[in-house]
């Protein structure tokens, strides 16, 4: 599989604080990659640099061989992005938002409808499309944002806490969709605190701590290298911070 997302020595510094520290990793087409870490470890900052929202202090991030900051408009042609907290124009209806996003990607209304309808049905959003976005629940916004992210058939999906706010049915539908996308050659960059989901879904994981990459690889390989016999959660706590005697993660390591 060929590399489509490439991060080399990526660093973001705010004053004396290194939010992301010399991060290097790559994600191939058709791969589901999970970025894991405690709160404040640098996951969101990394995603913002991938999306061209933040400029790196040093190093670079490239998608489809395009610089994520300097060529961010071109990068967006290849990327579908689902943020943790989707934001929409409150007084547009769901159907209007879909048409608007489709037009941004130069799709006709017919093309947008054709591409969106299977996803609308998959996430059972049919009855809500004529409702104003201001009245959408968090889960409904997540579903709509995911459909918007997929309209232009992106080569890379960047998903930030994608199941946050979804019910179990929608969560299962999203996992099925992620597997389908990867099977068709899409690279999936999946950031989550839900370690059981990452273990079931992802081909490889990267664990960051204090902005730096602390572990990288397939879960079975990490188990062997770290001499851990348990789950991804056991690997995570060995790498990112162990539980105390009461079984509670240390400060900053909340899942």
Report the helical percentage: 25-40%
Strand order of the largest sheet: 6-7-8-3-9-10
CATH class of the domain at 30-41 and 83-240 reads: Alpha Beta
β-sheet strand percentage: 15-25%
Number of E-type strands: 10
Average pLDDT number: 91
Please compute the radius of gyration using only Cα atoms: 19 Å
Largest sheet descriptor: 6 strands, mixed
Order of helices and strands: EEEHEEHEHHHEHEHEEHH
Annotated CATH topology of the domain at 30-41 and 83-240: Rossmann fold
Task: Label the structural class.
Answer: alpha/beta
Report on this structure:
This protein is an alpha/beta fold and 255 residues long. 35% of the residues lie in helices and 25% in strands. The strands form 2 sheets. It has a 6-stranded mixed sheet with strand order 6-7-8-3-9-10, with helices on both faces. A hairpin with a 2-residue loop joins strand 4 (58-63) and strand 5 (66-67). The longest helix is centred in the C-terminal third of the chain and has 16 residues, at 168-183. 39% of the residues are buried.
Describe this structure in a few short sentences.
This protein is of the alpha/beta class. Helix content is 35%, strand content 25%.
Key traits:
disordered C terminus, 25% strand, 9 helices, six-stranded mixed sheet, globular, 255 residues, Rossmann fold, single chain
Write the topology of this structure.
Elements: E1 3-14, E2 17-28, E3 32-36, H1 43-50, E4 58-63, E5 66-67, H2 72-75, E6 79-82, H3 94-104, H4 109-122, H5 138-150, E7 156-160, H6 168-183, E8 187-191, H7 195-201, E9 204-209, E10 212-217, H8 219-226, H9 232-240
Parallel strand pairs: 3-8, 3-9, 6-7, 7-8
Antiparallel strand pairs: 1-2, 1-4, 4-5, 9-10
Helix pairs in contact: 3-4, 4-5
């Amino acid at each position: 599989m060929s590399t489509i997302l490439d991060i080399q020595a990526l660093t973001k510094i705010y004053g004396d604080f290194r939010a992301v520290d010399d991060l290097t990793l790559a994600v191939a087409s058709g791969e589901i990659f999970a970025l894991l870490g405690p709160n404040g470890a640098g996951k969101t900052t990394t995603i913002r640099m991938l999306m061209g929202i933040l400029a790196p202090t040093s190093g670079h991030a490239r998608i489809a061989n395009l610089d994520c900051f300097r060529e961010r408009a071109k990068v967006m042609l290849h990327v579908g992005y689902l943020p943790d907290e989707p934001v929409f124009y409150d007084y547009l209806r769901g159907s209007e938002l879909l048409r608007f996003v489709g037009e941004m990607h130069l799709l006709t209304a017919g093309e947008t409808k054709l591409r969106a309808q299977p996803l609308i049905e998959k996430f059972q959003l049919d009855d809500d499309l004529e409702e104003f976005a201001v009245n959408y629940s968090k889960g409904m916004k997540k579903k709509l944002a995911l459909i918007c992210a997929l309209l232009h058939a992106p080569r890379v999906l960047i998903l930030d806490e994608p199941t946050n706010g979804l019910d179990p049915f929608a969560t299962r539908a999203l996992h099925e969709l992620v597997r389908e996308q990867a099977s068709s050659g899409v690279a999936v960059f999946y950031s989550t605190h839900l370690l059981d989901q990452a273990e079931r879904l992802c081909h490889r994981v990267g664990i960051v701590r204090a902005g730096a990459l602390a572990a990288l690889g397939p879960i079975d390989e990490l188990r062997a290298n770290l001499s851990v016999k348990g789950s991804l959660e056991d690997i995570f706590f060995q790498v990112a911070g162990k539980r105390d005697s009461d079984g509670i993660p240390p400060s900053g390591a909340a899942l």
